[in-house]
Known about the structure:
Blueprint: H1 28-34, E1 41-45, H2 56-66, E2 71-75, E3 94-98, H3 104-108, H4 134-145, E4 151-154, H5 155-159, E5 165-167, E6 172-174, H6 177-181, E7 185-187, H7 192-203, E8 217-221, E9 229-232, E10 243-245, H8 257-264, E11 273-276, E12 293-296, H9 300-305, H10 307-318, E13 328-333, E14 336-340, H11 349-356, H12 374-379, E15 382-384, E16 386-387, H13 398-402, E17 407-408, H14 411-424, E18 431-432, E19 434-436, H15 450-455, H16 475-485, E20 492-493, H17 501-504, H18 508-517, E21 522-528, H19 532-538, H20 543-559, E22 565-570, H21 579-591, E23 594-596, H22 609-616, H23 637-647, H24 655-664, E24 723-725
Parallel strand pairs: 1-2, 1-3, 3-4, 4-7, 9-11, 9-12, 12-13, 15-19, 18-20, 21-22
Antiparallel strand pairs: 5-6, 7-8, 8-14, 10-11, 13-14, 16-17, 23-24
Helix pairs in contact: 2-7, 10-22, 16-18, 18-20, 21-23
Amino acid sequence: MPQAQPLFSYRKYWAECFGPAPFLPMSREEMDQLGWDSCDVIIVTGDAYVDHPSFGMAVIGRTLEAQGFRVGIIAQPEWHSKDAFMALGKPNLYFGVAAGNMDSMINRYTADRRLRHDDAYTPGDVGGKRPDRAVIVYSQRCREAYSDVPVVIGSIEASLRRIAHYDYWSDKVRRSILLDSKADILLYGNAERAIVEVTHRLANGEPIEQIRDVRGTAFALNEIPGGWTVIDSTEFDKPGPVDHHKNPYVMVEEPSVCASKKEEQPAADSDVQVVRILDPLAARKAKLDPNKTVIRLPSYDQVKTDPIYYAHTARVLHLETNPGNARALVQQHGDREVWLNPPPIPLETDELDNVFELPYQRVPHPVYGDAKIPAYDMIRFSVNIMRGCFGGCTFCSITEHEGRIIQSRSQDSIVREVELIRDKTPGFTGSISDLGGPTANMWRLNCKSKKIEQNCRRLSCVYPGICKSLDTDQTPLIDLYRSVRELPGIKKVLIASGLRYDLAVETPAYVKELVTHHVGGYLKIAPEHTEGGPLSKMMKPGIGTYDRFKAMFEKFSKQAGKEQFLIPYFIAAHPGTTDDDMLNLALWLKNNGFRADQVQTFYPSPMANATAMYYSEKDPLHPVNRSSEKVFTAKGLRQRRLHKAFLRYHDPENWQLLRETLQKMGRADLIGYGKKQLIPPRQPANWQSSKPGKAESPAQPNGKRFLTQHTGLPPRGETKTRTAQRSVKRRPR
């Protein structure tokens, strides 16, 4: 793994003399109380300011404060004018702009593009306190406020939009958010390393347009700098031979006006070399210097007009996400080049401990008074023990944002945080609501070989099977659970993060420990589907692994003398899912006594592999070409609602749609009152639909009036299915 400067080894900025602030200031009055005449950095965020390590603005703010910088917060500003962006004055170094812990569009709209009227990251759970595409809007207002101040963008919204990306809400491919926001630099992933280096270099007087070598950053260029070798990855047919060209601008691309202009004016003295090869993996054989090699992705013009180019781009990008071997990427947008440096080096355990143990107050800023912030209430008694996920689920954004390498905190650091919750968090009654993170049980699980880890390009360590080089021993996690629950004043420790059950079954002692002591009646797991077709497109294990875990769960629950239930998640309308697949899932649910409570259809988040499948109807998990397999995708509103209806087969609202569908499928035998039949032939007596009439079709997110569909806000920004196991009620007659 490439080396990185230790996060807390920089010489501190002179403003360290002010010491840490009780809360990072949100007003000039607070700045005056601290003795500040100005802020070095001002963070603009779409979330309410909660001074807690589960909230991005607090983590970045406190990390910069620990480096000696004065950091102010502008949280959920009124964005229709520049006034709110001038509340703290002009920052000395830059504005840091973030949408918040969630993408602003996913936060605001359901999978049916309906407006949500709630926002868990806002006091009072009130929706509408942040604009759509918040990073773009906030960046524009920062420019209006102080045109000469650099703008640095980050957060998951910027991270997942760092290149040309499919935008579900407008149903088109948009440019990199770096260009739309007109920001100076974009930081992607967990950005502590990048933000610290960029801030120190700016403080030392280096112009931001010269900061071009920081990992985990993206920026715009007019042309490829000299001394680089460009691997041309703009085609997707069978790999061809390596061919060297002296002229860096002789490339075969889709013709466009901007590209033609660029070719007319080549750099006379440029020493850029172009390696023409169709498969970037094959370029390894050319033994090129990875530190001076950049891969050219298909251009914005290509991916927006031809979905196959989009799928190919997604494949290339995802193969370049391992910090140990990833190369830089470049994508042409008209007459500009968007350059992505390789991903950041993961934090070491001591660095992660220090980040989580900065002087957070662990409560919302006092400006909010007694107002409830649901996202804070959800996590205030929980502890994040790790980052990252090597599961590689194609529909999930965790891997694209946090990476596949697990970054784990030390057991001592986790215990100290539990003690802080016990001693300082208001309302604590002795129960820790979660010890987890992106997953519940990947803590301290990494590759057995650093060399293999550095060179690996697998998209998942657990699909199609668990890699033999992966350490799956969860005995250390057992020790952690025991250490926490043995602390004085701790009555109960629950595990609420999603459990990776295919890993859990590898350590039966872990399952026993979990089931015996850490399940509060229900345990969430995510089989997502029962059928092999959609599961292969999700990169999830077969339902047989679920059955294996379920047997363990029931066995150990019985041994503990407890009645406990599994809550499985399922996704409707995921790419690769046919009507037959959803029917089989519905029959499985009925046969196993499950009735889905709240459900959600697949949500195409930017940059996910499943989103590439949705848009292109090609599978980027395999080499893409014109003749490759077409992925069936439920796109129309009726088709997506049908798949959702199969999950809620027991709801009379869905019976008419399901009857029509079953008859068309030739499965009218499933309509009736028998135990093996799915739905009854008619509605219940005195039944009235709760759905609206003609206004049922959703509006587009363009400011028009929306209908409301409360599907609930899933934790950690994920879109999952809420299910509950209930006794099968007698069917209406």
